[in-house]
Amino acid sequence: MLTLRKASDRGAANHGWLKSFHTFSFANYRNPREQGFSDLLVINDDRVAAGKGFGQHPHRDMEIFSYVLEGALEHKDTLGTGSVIRPGDVQLMSAGSGVAHSEYNHSATQPVHFLQIWIVPNVSGAKPRYQQEHFSPRQKRGRLQLIISPEGADGSLQVRQDARVYAGLIDGQESATLTLDANRYAYVHVARGSVDLNGLLLQEGDGVRVREEQALTLSNGVDAEVLVFDLRAQELPEMP
Is the Cβ–Cβ distance between 32 and 234 less than 8 Å? Predict the structure, then answer.
């Protein structure tokens, strides 16, 4: 069963320097029907003006990853990590017992467009950690590349939850299929472009809750970039 969440139905915030769309309830956007899905709590689609960003702020007991689509995002945290995240880079910060970080547009002239995604962990009070890896267009072209997993398999980043995240680039005649184990849910988010999911046309910003499906096939893409989450079969996130 596929349940579509249209991009136009998302929450929206415009702070001048920041324009954001919220798939699930976040900050001032509260929707009782959109409180996350399985262990997926937040998908924020953020565009930050040149030279602007989020000052240092704390997090605890959350798996937070950033996926840059355009521009460059500068990250600093109280673990002593400092990095610049560009398209193809995936950054995962496990907040654990507590960490503070800042995120700024690295450019003084160009905006940055990125997704920030929160996954609820399966343990509380763990040691904070930071990971970052680059996944090239070749790795994602016409296929679903594993970028996050519990085991850190195949060069993916290691998340403290029974969740796997795949990234794919689908265009023209390309197609990619993910087979789901029994009793698993999934969530599909279109980061850019358009693509068919099992015959359902999706546009940029659309998301789909997936229940009781054995396979997900992405096809007929038009410059599509897609994230697919393989998740536990539960409706709402639960803190450990």
Answer: no
Position of tokens 């997090």?
59
Q: Amino acid letter at 139?
A: Q
Confidence of residue 47 (pLDDT cuts 50, 70, 90): very high
CB burial class (10 A; 0-12, 13-18, 19+) of residue 33?
A: exposed
**pLDDT tens, 7-43?**
999 999 999 999 999 999 999 999 999 999 999 999 9
169: which 2 tokens? 């680039």
Q: Which amino acid is at 194?
A: S
Provide the whole-model pTM.
Answer: 0.96
C-alpha 74/C-alpha 171 separation (Å) is 30
Q: How far is CA 15 from CA 21, 75, 102, 127, 218, in A?
A: 12, 20, 17, 34, 34
Q: Check which CATH number belongs to the domain holding 180 and give it.
A: 2.60.120.10
Per the structure, the count of domains in the chain is 1
In-domain check, residue 240? no
